[in-house]
Amino acid sequence: MKIAIIGATHAGVFAAKQIKVEHPEAQIDVFEKNHTVSFLSCGIALWIGDHVSSPQKMFYESPESLTEQGITMHMGTEVTKADLAAKHLVYRDLASGKETTDDYDKIVITTGSKAVKPALPGIDSDRVYDSKNWDNAKTLKEVTPDIKSAVVIGAGYIGAELAEQLSVTGKQVTLIDGLNRVLANNTAEDFSSVFQKEYEQHGVKLALNQLVQSFEETNDGIKVVTDKGVYEADIAILGIGFVPNTAMFKGQVKMLKNGAIETNKYMETSVPGIFAAGDAATVFYNPTQKYDYIPLATNAVRQGLLVGKNIVKPSLAYQGTQATSAVELYDIAYAATGLTVDGATQRGLDAESVTIEEDYRPDFMLSTTKVKASLTWDKGTKRIIGGAFMSKHDISQAANVVSLAIENKMTIDQLAMTDFFFQPNFGQPINYISSVAMAASAKAAK
């Protein structure tokens, strides 16, 4: 069996490894236009802020390690044409320019995503930086120690983290976003307002509800022009978002309007023998029970593993995702899963939520910390569709608990009565997850 994998970030790496485990005899050709694999781009801001022990540890595999596992790595090689029905590829060595054609039994599309980069005047300036891949990370790490100021465009997770790390390392930062609050697509307002206050207290200028119109180089920096103002700094960094990198396959497989490739629950596309995973593909989103586009490394890893399990015959179905994620800004942890009420409304769900705040453990302890907790549910069924937690205490696993509840279609009443342990070092007699579920049940009963 001869298999081609196009792209080697997370989904491609895990697909290749799992195929080799399941089918040791398979010939696996991995095509990657860069010279690295498995880069954990979520660590870019942390590296800029000097929180990374070694940049080499931001990779969990290398071309050499995958080769040792019996996988044929074609690094610095770009697939230029793909006839998916015929399973025929044309690829080019980027160093020599040599083109080669080959045919395969199966093809796995793990081409990932590309950063959103609108065609704005001046956006290609050398003083405007991207923040997606290893090359971007190295460049930012080289440049940022010597700057005094930066404009960050995009207040999602990437932009939010970059703005925070630049501000705590003494840079003057302006954070621009088209929506009216930071992390607007990730949080409810009562959570984002906490972060906005922290940004302001740390000297970050928030330029919200503004759309960038152009970039203009100055004698010693860059000028960012929006529909409401002009902001100058040494550099600008883009963190606007991602879109699927799938243009080459348009018209050959079923896709969403944004180019995300649709798959069945075994990760196979509309063309038999062609699989897709990761940022190039859709996910089944359990809160809505529909397919969606949510580019996260966690989704990519699981989908890659499933490709390996199902490459010969359907064996293990995709359980879907809750898009569980977390961020820590100014020592405040935020972890969430599923939808906010705004997110639910945008997707046609009639939802309700409740938010509480309480100490995570009893007051008789010498210290304790407040936890803000929120739960979102479908009004008609009381099915849990989202949850969020914020604290200076580590609340990250609470989001995983609610993620499991969403996947198993639990109601707020069921979660309210779920057994959680009590021990004063760790929590209250009624755990804060139980408390917010009880508050939700009480609100729903009214």
From TrEMBL:
One of its GO terms (molecular function) is oxidoreductase activity. Residues 1-304 form the FAD/NAD(P)-binding domain. Keywords: FAD, Flavoprotein, Oxidation, Oxidoreductase, Redox-active center. InterPro entries: FAD-bd_OxRdtase (IPR050260), FAD/NAD-bd_sf (IPR036188), FAD/NAD-binding_dom (IPR023753), FAD/NAD-linked_Rdtase_dimer_sf (IPR016156), Pyr_nucl-diS_OxRdtase_dimer (IPR004099). It holds the Pfam family Pyr_redox_2. Its cofactor is FAD. Its EC number is 1.6.3.4. It is an enzyme of class 1 (oxidoreductase). SUPFAM superfamilies: FAD/NAD(P)-binding domain, FAD/NAD-linked reductases, dimerisation (C-terminal) domain. Residues 330-427 form the Pyridine nucleotide-disulphide oxidoreductase dimerisation domain. It comes from the Bacteria. Belongs to the class-III pyridine nucleotide-disulfide oxidoreductase family. This is Or a related oxidoreductase (FadH2).
